[in-house]
Amino acid sequence: MASASASLRIDKCLWFLRFAKSRTLAQLRVEGGHIRKNGKRIEKASETVQVGDVITLPVADGAVSIRILALPTRRGPPAEAQGCYENLS
After folding, report:
1. Tens of pLDDT along 29-53?
2. Is the pLDDT of residue 65 over 80?
3. CB neighbours of 57 closer than 8 A, spacing ≥ 6?
4. Region 11-29 average pLDDT
5. Which of 14, 44, 45, 69 is most buried, judging by how many CB atoms fall within 10 Å of its CB?
6. Which pLDDT score is estimated for 61?
7. Diameter over CA atoms, the chain
8. Neighbours of 16 (CB within 10 A)
9. What is the pTM of this model?
10. Are 52 and 3 spatial neighbours (Cβ–Cβ below 8 Å)?
11. Which domains does the chain have, with CATH numbers?
12. CA-closest candidate to residue 10, choices 59, 44, 41, 40
């Protein structure tokens, strides 16, 4: 996990956290305006996220909001990914 002052592109973060099956799909979701960071809609996959940011994104049965607790450094197993965020929904 990365340090608290670090940042990570949102498309890469969503892929690492297993909210997208591929980085390309994560980019399409962001560029389609479907993702919010700290309440503001973002449309650039290059937008960065940091520890403490709140990300809201659509899922199959509605929407989910998560707070980033730690930045992942890889796309690891689901348990590792879930340890990097807190589900606020």
Report:
1. 999 999 999 999 999 999 999 999 9
2. yes
3. 14, 19, 29, 34, 35, 36, 63, 64
4. 96
5. 14
6. 87
7. 33
8. 22
9. 0.88
10. no
11. 8-87 (3.10.290.10)
12. 44
Residue type at position 69: L
Query: Does pLDDT of 3 surpass 70?
Result: no
Tell me the DSSP string of 40-68.
EEE--TT-EE-TT-EEEEEETTEEEEEEE
pLDDT of residue 1: 53
Q: CB neighbours of 26 closer than 8 A, spacing ≥ 6?
A: 10, 11, 12, 14, 15, 19, 20, 45
Task: Answer yes or no: are the C-beta atoms of 47 and 66 closer than 8 Å.
Answer: no
Cβ proximity of 72 and 84 under 8 Å: yes
For residue 68 the two structure tokens come to: 């980033």
Q: Does the pLDDT of residue 66 top 70, yes or no?
A: yes
